[in-house]
Amino acid sequence: MKNNTYKLLAISCLAIMFGISISCNDDLVERNMQYPQLNPTNPDANAGTWSTLLLTAPDEFPLPAPTATTSSAYKAEINEIKSYQANITDEQQRIVDYWSAGGVLRWNEIMQTLVARHNRPPYQNEDGTYPAPSAANPFANPQFPFSNPPFAARAYAYVSAAQYDAMVATWHYKALYHRDAPFVVDNTLSVLVPKSPLPSYPSEDGVLAGVTVEILKLLFPTEIAYIQQKADEEKLYRIISGANVRSDVDAGVTLGRAIAAKFITKASTDGAGAAIGNQTLWTQLETNAIANGETPWRSLDIPARPPMLPLFGNVKSFLMTPANVVASRPGPPPSTNSQQFLNELNEVKSYSNDASREHMKIVSFWADGVGTYTPPGHWNAIANEAFVYQYFSEVRWARNMALLNISMMDAAICCWDTKYHYFNPRPCQVDPSIKTLTGVPNFPAYVSGHSTFSGAAATFLSHVIPSRAQEFEAMANEASMSRLYGAIHYRSDCEAGLQLGKTVGNYAVQRALIDGAE
Amino acid sequence: MKKLYLLFLLTAGQTFYAQTEIDGIMMEKKQLCTGITYEYSSWDKYWEGTFYRENLNMGTVSTQKTAINANYGVTDKLNVIFSLPYVTTKASAGTMIGQKGMQDASLTVKYMPYEKSFKNSSLSFYTIGSYSFPTSNYVADYLPLSIGLHSKVAMLRLMGDYQFGDLFTTVSGAYAKRSNITIDRNTYYSDQMHYTNEVNLPDAITFNARLGYRTNRLIAEAVVDTWTTQKGGFDITSNNMPFPSNTMNMTKVGFSAKYYFPQLPGLSVVAAYNHVTNGRNVGQSNAISGGLLYIFDFNKTHIKTATDEK
Description:
Chain A is mostly helical. Chain A is built from 19 helices and no strands.
C-alpha cells in the first residue's frame, strides 16, 4: 500500500515536471512584428518640393506619363489584383502583413541583418598576417564586406540618403501625373492596407525596391539573391494589397534604379575604398605618435591586426566638408605621460575590478560588437521603434532616416579622423592587468566611437521628437559610459566623443530646419 | 593543483546533471549521501561549426566547478537528488574578464520501477526526471566565459543497468527540454535578426553508456557520453563569438572510479577524467574531477556498502 503511494508520487512528480516543460511556449514575440500598418497622420502631399541631397532637382531623372486609368491595359491590371486577392495564400498574407508596416522601415531592418551578418573581422593567414576583403572579388575569403562600424555607418547613410531623394522624386511625380489609386478607379476593389489619399503613380514601394536593391548590391555584393527576394516581396505586396497596380510598381522600380546610379557614382569616389591604408601608413602613424613623445596605439589582437580603416576620416560626406571635419576635431587626450592620464587609467581599472552585474548589463546592451548591427545599427533600431508610433509618411520616414544616418556617417568620419590623428593606446595596452567586460576594438581609444555615434543620433532624434529628448540623451550617456564600465575606454574618450557627436548631429539638425519638411 | 586532484569527484563538464543520477546505484530508504565535488576542465582548441581551431585571443579557457550534492533514499526504489555548483571561468590570454557565481541547482527524482536478480546477475530499470534552474543572475550571453546558459532545463531519462558477477553496464538516454532565456541585449543576430531579449535554446538529447567493475568496495568504469542539440541551433560563424542558442554537440569518453574506505564506514572517494573526442561549437575540453561523499544512515543500522545499496 505504502509502496504504491510512493510509486504514484514518483510517477506524478516525473509527469508534472515533464508536462510543465513541454507546455512552455518557446515562440519568441518580436517587437518589430507588432508594428501597425503604415497609416500616416499627414501624407506630406507637398514633399515633392523638399530639398534633395544629391539630385539637382526632383525630376532630374525623367519618368514617362502613365497610361490612362480608362484603358483596357489598366483594367487588366485591376483584374490582376482581384485574381491575387481571390486566391491569397498564407505566405502572401505574411508578405502583406510584414511589408505594410512601411518600406523604409523594413529595408532598414534588412540592412541591419546584412550588417550583422557581415560584421566579422577576417581570420588570420597561416603566417599571422590578415587577408583583406576585396570589393572586386567579394566571394573570396574573407567575403566583402567586413561591415565594421565605419563601413556600416556609411552603408546605412547611402541607402537612407538615396531612399530620401527617391521619395522626394516619387512625391513630385505623384503630384505631377495625379494618377488615381486602383481603389479609387474601381470602388469595388478591396484593399488590404490603409488607403492613401495620394496619387499612386509611381508606387513608393516600387521606387524603394528599385533604389535600395541597386545600392545594396554595391554594398553587399554577395547578398544579391537575398536582396532581390526581398524586393520581389515588396513589389508583390503592393499589388496583392490593392494599393498599386503593376504599372505603378514597375515605373517606380525604373525611377528608383536611375536615382541609385547617381549615389553609386558618389560612393565609388568618396574615398572609402582607400580607407584601409597600407603598411607604410600604419608605420607612419606609430612613428608620429612616438615623435610626439606619446605611447602609440598598438593592436591587442593576437596576431596583431592592422588598425581598422585609418583613412576613414578622409571619406567625403553628404553634409560636412573636410574643413568642417578638421574644425570639429577635439583637442588632444591627456598625454600618456601625464598625471591625468594615470588618474583616468586608474578609474578604468576600478571599473574593471568592480565589474558589477548592473554594469555588465549596460556594457552588453550597448556593446554592438562583432556579429551585430553595430552602434549605428542600434540607433537605427531605436529610431525605427520611435518613428513607428509617430505615424510618418514614407517620405518623412526616408527624410528622418537619411538625416539620422548621414549624421552617423559624419560621426564615423569625425571620430576616425580624431582616432588616427592622436593614435593613443587603449587602457589595457598600457596596463595589461586591466581585464575588459567586452572585446577591445582594434583601433585607437580617443575618442570613443560609441559616444560619437550616440551623441550625434540622440541630438538628431531629439530634434525629430522633442518630447523624448531627455530619454534619447540618457540613452546616449549610458551608451557612452558603457565603454568606461567595460574598461575599454578612458573617461576623456567618452566625454569628448559625446561632445563631438553633438557637434556632428547639429549639422543634421541645421539641415532639417531648411529642407522644407518642417 | 595536484593536491586538488586527490579530492575529486566527477560532475560532467558542460552538462547539467550530477553523475550520481545516471548510475545504477540507489540509496536505501532513509539514507542520505552527501558530498562535495570539484572539477577542473579546460580547452585550448574548439570547433567553430565544423572548423577545428585555436583562438590566441582566449588562450586556454578553464572552468572550475565546486558543487555540493545530496542523494536521499525516500524508499529503496525512490531517490531524490540535489546538486548546486559554484563555477568560475578564466581565459589565459586576451583581455576578457572571467566570470564566477552560483550556477544552476538541480533537483532529480530517480525511480526504479523494476529490479530482478538472477543466479549470478541482476537487471534493473530506472526513470529519472530532473529539473535545473539558475540560482543567480549570472550572464549567459558571454560565451565562452559565461558560467552557464541560464536556462531552466527539464530532463527525462530512461536507464537500464545489468550486473553480471563483478561486471556491469549501464545505458541511458534522455531528452532535455530547455526554456527560453533572457539576455541583456534587446536585439541580437543569430542566423537572423531578433528584436527581443528572449532567446530560444534548442532542446537536446543525451546518451550515456558505462561499462566496468563493481563490487561493494570499488566501482571502476569507462564512460561514453553524447550531447546533441536539436533543431533551432546554428553554427558559430567564422571568427565570431559563440552564442547560447548555437548548436552544441559533443562526444566525451572518460573513466571514473568510486572507492569505499573499509576502515571508515560511510565514506567514499570518487575521481573521474573525461575528454571530448568530437564536437561542434564546443571546446575540446579535458576534465578532471573528484570528491568526497559520506552516507548518513537514519535507519540507525550499519552503513551499507555499494552492493547492498543496489
